[in-house]
Amino acid sequence: MEAVGVCRYMAVQASPCQLDRVRRNTTFAMATEKAVGGTRQVKVFPLGDKSAVLRPKNEFNGSSIKLLSRVEQLKLLSKAEKAGLLSAAEKSGLSLSKIESLGLLSKAEELGILSSATDPNTPGALLNLAIALLIAGPLCVYFVPDDSSWEVALQVVIALLSVVGGPAAFAGSNLVSKLQKST
């Protein structure tokens, strides 16, 4: 099991017992702990060593987000069916064969939209976007003068973007957050 520790003399990744031992022996170092054949080994790297690689914080927890299991658990497909979303999409001309012919799934994969649903930072980023959009609309209307028609058109466009995009980003943040929760 790996633990992360930071003290004022060094940044280390080790168990608490090994932290003390590394702290006594090295002033500025980073240490990693690995279980090898039932024993634990600590490798110490001096700070600034290019061979030492720190992993992002979200890689330490060891639990991955199981998106499809969570969709099944929340019964999202049943709720979409009951709400009539699929038939409404088909009436508007968006069917599964149309999605396939347009290549929308592969395009979403290329843009990283599907993998962002498992990124722990996505809900916070979407919430920040929602807040920014909801603030931008009124600020634009207040600060952009009404002197010419293009300025009024700019106000209308930004206000519409704010009214539509803000709640959509908030709903997306809420949905992704619920999908990522482990129950």
Strand order of the largest sheet: 1-2
Percentage of residues in helical conformation: 55-70%
Number of strands: 4
Radius of gyration: 25 Å
Low-confidence stretches: 1-12, 57-62
Given helix and strand content, the structural type is alpha+beta
- End-to-end Cα distance: 23 Å
Strand percentage lies at 5-15%
User: What is the number of helices?
Assistant: 9
3D shape: extended
Q: Name the helix and strand elements from N-terminus to C-terminus, one letter apiece.
A: EEHEEHHHHHHHH
Residue-averaged pLDDT: 76
Total domain units = 3
The main β sheet shows up as: 2 strands, antiparallel
Describe the structure.
With 183 residues, this protein is an alpha+beta fold. 58% of the residues lie in helices and 12% in strands. It is built from 9 helices and 4 strands; from the N terminus they run ββαββαααααααα. It has helices at residues 16-25, 67-74, 76-83, 85-91, 96-102, 104-111, 113-116, 122-143, 149-180, and strands at 4-6, 11-13, 29-36, 39-46. It has a two-stranded antiparallel sheet with strand order 1-2. A two-stranded antiparallel sheet has the order 3-4. A hairpin with a 4-residue loop joins strand 1 and strand 2 (11-13). The longest helix is centred in the C-terminal third of the chain and has 32 residues, at 149-180. The two termini are 23 Å apart.
